[in-house]
């Protein structure tokens, strides 16, 4: 598999749950007025020394919002996840979106629970609350949008979080003249829609996309859609399931982006099991039948009574876009690529729109399970997700003329030079150097008369090449863009091994597969998401030496076993806090990886190593956590000093509010010390968050914390997060000899 990981060097400050950008494909900027304080978890460059004026383009570079420019109404439906709704409203109400979001409609679909305005007191100037007398289901979205005071509506479900910078980018891309709204979706949903493109000449050209992962549509579209549904005399059930009808009846191939969203879960999901999937398929099929009834005839409209209500249905010719898109995490920018994500030619022509689901099934069989896994595990969004440990990969040949590009929106014109940076495997240096580069000028890409410069760098334990090409900015501008066009044909590498599977984090014991000339990035790409296991061991005071020896044998045995796919983030001993206590943090490939690993351990030689530790342990506990994406775990390093682990027991239901408050204030700390990582509990003791820092000494810790108190925003962050926590603990730790983090 070839990896084109666009690990943007535009680092973002991540809202909600994110933090850097990936092909290390990114923009870096040189400020004309000298050094700029770092605001990043990952460095602006992986070179040993860089100019102090070099800064990674981030969300903070967006201009302050102008009064009166907001023209989007956000619409959130509440049913059974009210705590999620409160957190989402908090994000939508952040100052960064003051120039985008004019109002927030909370439509309460649960008639048994009356919501009150004081529950949104922190955003009372924007929130409009409507307690529906009945459950209007998804029809409510369009009813709310149709009467909005703004020309655009942003729609999302209550079990999904969309980053503010992504919403900003959606609005920057949207236009009053756009034929299609813009839809966000996770990779498997983008694939689902891509496999059901249908064209029936001369009038039908449609596909399907959900709205709930985050979408922006025009108010006029919602109004026309409601008028059409009324004119079609759809049933009450069909109207309630309006999401299943909107994109299909629009009769365009929707612009769907690979998203950077965060699943929130909780509450009672609407679509559950095969019954829910079958209901969705039934209504998707019904929407296609309705489209046939309107357009599958010689003289339009096929139903004369619809003459005045057909404006929602697009009649202009349309074809699927060859370009895939993903919004950046951390700053307002859009990644685009014309590299083919599906190698085979899909079936698209049909005799009727109602064959849409049959087309999806046929195309799914055509591409096979292997290609589907590649598509969903290494999507374009991994190029710009804020994490250099993930990658956009594909296993298809790359044609001459195909491109990758990055375009920013709304950046302040403060710089005299911009750089486009990529992290690639050493074998890819020649490919990058042979490519042509273009920059965006007045809305048009023009060729740059310069070549990429590449240097050796280390990311964790992996040798890579950091390549960059830059331009001098002749005059202040607000948007910047780069394009890299391949001038050589790359032939896909089809053989694979266990070592070359995607990996998210690097450990000292992880052996990186050397890639042939085909990869644009090392393969520690994510396999969806990672779950973190925190192990807490309380020992007998006279047996610490024996325990350390037994623990090293056990944990390093796990890491070195290629069957397990488990990584050791670090192992520490407490020096201040509970004495004779050890912490171990391991990472697994989702819950499935945890299940497989623990099952293998119980039936392998590792069980003996595990049991060898038990005589020295008084008590132990285990907790499964997930990493905050805006606070990614540092790669293995040996910087010396001490570690501090801070643990907060939150008031139930306040996790999103805590995270949003902490994220806004964390930059005050990042200016003086880089965080090691942050996690929130999912199994075990719930409603807990942990974060870890590394200092040269306790004196250094004291000085850093005192400096942070002098920065605007930190005192407010501490005050607000303290109100959300029931207890707080701090432990000073020293790494064990085999810990990847030292």
Automatic annotation (TrEMBL):
The record's section on PANTHER family has: NIPSNAP-RELATED (PTHR21017), PROTEIN NIPSNAP (PTHR21017:SF17)
Keywords recorded for this protein, A-Z: Membrane, Transmembrane, Transmembrane helix
**Signal peptide (from-to):** none
Entry protein name: NIPSNAP domain-containing protein
Keyword Manganese in the entry? The reply is no
Report if keyword Transmembrane is assigned. Answer: yes
Q: A cellular component term (GO) from this record? A: mitochondrion
